[in-house]
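Quick one:
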Amino acid sequence: MNDVETAGRGCRGTVVVWHSWATLPNAADVERGHLASTTKVGNPLGIASVLLVQLVAGLLIATQTSWIVVGAVIAGGAFVLAAPRLVAPLGLACAFASWRVGGASLNMSIADVMLVVAAVAMLPYLQLRFAREKRVFTALLAYLVIVGVAVAAHPATRAILELAHRTVLVGGSLALGIALSILGLRQRALRGYVAVACAFALGAVFDSLSKPKLHGLPAPAYPFGIQKNPAAMLIGVAIVVLLFTPREVELARPVRLTALSTLFVGMLMCQSRGASIALTLVLVGNAFRTKRLRLSLGAVLGCTLLIGMVYLSLSALSQSQDRNSKFNPVNSRISTYDDALRLWRTDPLVGVGVRYFRNSSIVSDGEPHNLVVAALAETGLIGLAGTLVLLIVGLKEARRLRGPLGALAFWVLVLKLASSAFDIFWVAGTMAVPWILVGMALASSNEPADDPNGASLARVIPAG
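Output:
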């Protein structure tokens, strides 16, 4: 058994104890300040909750399969408890995996499954040590209560399941991000995410070049079968990670520049207008905020990306034969907006129901690719108000944090919001990643109120 004592100027040292069966932070993690203070690891309540989740999941699956599955689930849970450092970072790295699993009865994405597994793995080590963490979770609770009113007005199984899904996407992601910071796993998680993003960027380049050209231009890429818009948005997040937190990732300069170039080209090959506009706004906005517009590599990359996307879009549009068709990207979006707003006007206060576009009794043109329009149609004015509460609190708390991690969390959340003006908002992967980063940032800043510099020291006390 090892004891870790964390002490800082102006703050009381606390002792952190972990058991030998759980692989937890090493001395290097602690010395870099990745393990925050006031943390008790391996609490019995958290472990019991993990085992309970495993048992319930196994029993539910057993109703349709066999008790062999229950054993597999429990065995998997034992592995999660025994090696949390191996499992937890996968919740971030697997955000790209939007492939569906489980058939019609389950129909979850791999990204959702890994987020649940990673978040459950971190439950024994989760503690809300700062008021800012509690404020964000309170905002999530407020959102769930408010949207719950709209769900009660139009009750349906799909609406209840979607509300649970959104709870996991935000609450599970926040919990995972907080635990990753507590356990000193931020760097491993961020490096893994960047590596996966580079792989998908290369896949985008290969996919685009291997297809026949459209109107003399490269075809939009769907790397490994992933839809181009979420793929481009997640690649854009990796660009922001490398530009905003290079010291957190700690890659050699040649490796970092090579990764940036790969990500940039891969995102361009996806030809996602919404993600490109959103990334440009983030990079230029950060340059203005830090007063480094002329010298900012991010601003230059953002403007170059936007110019490239404008050229590709206008060239494709001018040579396209379907520019007047209602099925092209612009006209189809306008059609879904008009249809969604028409439905919203029938019940402005609570909308027509969460995931109404899956309701066979409601005639619609599909899910609108816009956060505000979708929120109004699904949950009305009260649902939009609840969404705004959640987002404003998350942005405010991230913006108040000092250091690059706070800036990363803030701007990635802005990136998600900006891209959601042109794309679907509640999506596995693209919704989870910003909140994981917010959780990391909220838990990483160990700054006592009476310490203006936020200085903290950590040292390992040998067992004795």
